[in-house]
Amino acid sequence: MTRVEGFGFLGFYAVYLYILFWRSKHAAHEHVEHFHLPNWKIIFFAVGGLAAIAALSWGMIETGLELAAIFGISIAVVSALIFAFGTSISDTFIAVSAAKKGNGSGAVSSIFGSNTFDIAVCLGTPIVIVGTVPVNIEVVRSSLVMLFLSIIIVGFFVINDWKISKREAWLSLITFGIFLTAFLCGI
Q: Quick one: 17 exposed, middle or buried, by C-beta within 10 A (0-12, 13-18, 19+)?
């Protein structure tokens, strides 16, 4: 991947944000709970939270690389097992919280928004900074297949009846289990 592609990812995300803000201004708004926190608390939790995420991410990466060396496994496996779980835990908490409040669209939007950010910004930024980065398609193929399957599954559920039930949630978890098994077996 080249810097041009990195800038393309970042440009895509800028357009995505523009569309989200435009649609937000022109759409009916859902009721959102508002807690009226003082500004200093908002700033404290935002800055403190970002600092904690940065520190824990660094620790997770160092630990993952050390585990890869100790057990003789590839960075791709560590990325799929440790890094993906670690970076998605907060997404899970946000989706569960939104779902408990009956805000299914918030849960789904959070997940898609997070993955869009991961693909566009988390992939685009390092490429823009570093320059050309070789990617072995054989290593990431199963992850790409799972990404497309996930989008199709969630899209089918939402379009089909605009609800995601426990049955469909279990189907998604089973699909991930199959992906993980296939990934670990090198299929």
A: middle
What residue segments make up the domains of the chain, in order of their start? 136-187
For residue 165 the two structure tokens come to 């039930």
Distances (CA, A) of 131 to 3, 49, 104, 115, 128: 5, 30, 39, 23, 6
DSSP-derived secondary structure letter, 162: S
DSSP state of 27: S
CA distance 76 to 137: 11
pLDDT digits (tens, 9 = 90+) for 3-42: 888 898 889 889 988 888 887 777 666 565 666 788 888 8
Sign of the CA dihedral running 113, 3, 135, 63: negative
d(CA 98, CA 58): 28
82 alpha carbon, distance to own chain's centre? 14
Is-contact 53 27, C-beta < 8 A?
Answer: no
The pair of three-digit structure tokens given for residue 119, joined into one six-digit string: 């693909």
Q: ∠ CA 180-185-187 to the nearest 5 degrees?
A: 90
Query: Which pLDDT score is estimated for 48?
Result: 93
Query: What are the residues whose beta carbons fall under 8 Å from the beta carbon of 71, sequence distance 6 or more?
Result: none
